Amino acid sequence: MARKIEVVTPPNPAKVQALVKSVRNQIDKLDLQILKLINERASAAGEVGKIKMESGDDIFSPAREEEVLANVLEAHTKYPHGLGVSTVRAVFREIMSGSRALQKLIKVTYLGPEYSYSHLAAIERFGQAVEFVPVGSITAVFEEVNRGHADFGVVPVENSTDGRIADTLDMFMRMPQMIICSEIRLQIHHNLMAKCEAKDIRRVYSKPQAISQCRNWLGKNTPHALLTEVSSTTTAAELAQREPGAAAVASRQAAVRYGLRILFEDIQDSADNETRFAVIGHQKTAKTGNDKTTLMFRIPHSPGSLADAIGIFKSNKVNLAWIESFPSRIAKNEYIFFADFEGHIDDPKISKMLKAFHDECTEVTVLGSYPIAQISG
Q: Of 87, 153, 202, 207, which is most buried by a Cβ count within 10 Å?
């Protein structure tokens, strides 16, 4: 039996062009509607800003911005085949950033230079419509905020691979008046980038923490390269651009900035590599119902004192999320402890628990209550 051959008629080019034009006209109309709506939203946000300024309230409101994002992302679940969650979050982050800038252009300092992970974390929190001020050290971030040269600072607190960031904890001890008003959880994607081929790499530059987070991968895949520590991942990318046979471990954005080819993506040893950043400033953050508090406390140098302090969390049914010790600058063999726990200082249960802490500890400082961040990046 002869096989019937089906003849496929090619689409009519004129008809295809007409369909494309029709859809594009629809897109153009939607774009104008979107533009109209975001400007109406900005105008409404401006009215809120005027009221805030007249009453002396803060322009940057992490609690309100988290509420906006939560509402939008919940509504977005109705569109399962629409844009990705990260895209929607980024769009509304920039809308809020631009609206905020109409009220006041805030100044944010961070551990630079540009396209360092601290810079990326700052963009994730504040959007692009702010004045970013890169500085050379975590100490400088604290100093700039403390002196009023910047409204907020972004500092790393801990990494899921390397643990605590000692310089940040040390600065909280030196400047306990600093308030954590927000947090950022950024998934860290390390990339190996260079202008040369992988076989020609003789030196790999990066920040010590980045090298540590990729050490196994680098040992296996670049065994003959000299690992060289520099002040930042961005500096590493700059060196890789200039030096023959050099590569860098840095962010994708740094590769774009310095015209480098990404030879290998996601080379971090842990797939869940994450850094948590704190936004420091002078303002307190209202509670959202999904908050955490950071506490710094010192206990007597006596048997069982730490167990007694930690027991306060259990007896008050408060979930302890993180605890870290740091040598005290006041007395030998004494330690300062940092702890994160769920709840806000305005919650009655937390107020009761903090009173018990004051009774048990030598020194207690609440570094801030703020919304619990979702991981991004």
A: 153
